[in-house]
Amino acid sequence: MGEYDIGYPHSRAKRVLKEGVRTIKNRMIAFRLDKKYYDGEREDGYGGFNYDGRWSKIMPEIIARYSLSSNSAALDVGCKKGFFLHDLKAALPGVKIQGVENHLYPIENAMESVKPYLKFSEYEKLPFKDREFDFVMAFASIYMLNLRGVMDALREIQRVGKGKSYITVGAYRTKEERDLFLEWTLLGTTVLHVDEWFEVFKETGYTGDYFFTSASSLHLVRG
Hints:
Strands 2, 3, 4, 5, 6, 7 and 8 form a seven-stranded parallel beta sheet that branches. A two-stranded parallel sheet has the order 1-9. By secondary structure, the protein is α/β, with parallel strands linked by helices. The protein has a single domain, classed as Vaccinia Virus protein VP39 (Rossmann fold, 3-Layer(aba) Sandwich), CATH 3.40.50.150. Helix content is 32%, strand content 17%. Helix 3 (54-65) packs across helix 4 (83-91) and helix 6 (147-160) packs across helix 8.
C-alpha cells in the first residue's frame, strides 16, 4: 500500500483563483454542512451535489486493486449522498456496504438505493467491529477535522478494516502550493506538508493507500 491516484474524474481545466474568491463568510456557510453547502451557490460549496455516475467509470479499477467481490464488505467514511456506494453495489450486487457521515443533510438526501446503509457517526469513533470491512474509503472527508480528529479517524479506519483502505488528505510540497490550497478550500482544516503526513501515518499506524489532494492535483493557479 502507498501513494495511489484512484483516478477520480476531476476536470483537467485550470482553476483560476482570483483574490478574495472565497471569504470567511463562504467558509462559515460551508461549515454548516447543510443544503447551502451541497446544493446552494458554488462559492459556498458544491453548487449542486448530484449523481452523475463518475464513480462507475473507475469502479472496475477499484475492484481490481482492492480484490473486491460480491462477498466483500466495504465502508465509506464521509459517504455524502452515497454515490460511491451506489456504483459499487451496481458493479457487485451482493457486496455488503455501509456509509457514515458526521452531519445529517447528505444522509437525509441520499440516493434511495443506499439510504438504508448510511449512518450518522463521528469519524473518530466508528460504530463497527474490529476488522469488519475488506475495504474502507475516506475520500475528501477526514481532513476537515482538526489534527487530533484526523489521527483518531485514521486509527479507526485501521481498526475496522483489514488493511485495504484509501484516503485523500489535503497536502502541499511548497509554500506556494500551501497558500493556493488554503485560499481555495472551504473545509480543509488539517492541511500538512507531505512529509508531515508521513509522520501522522506512522504515529497512527495507518498502512493503506493515500492520495495527496493539493493545488497541483486540483490544477489551481493564481489569477
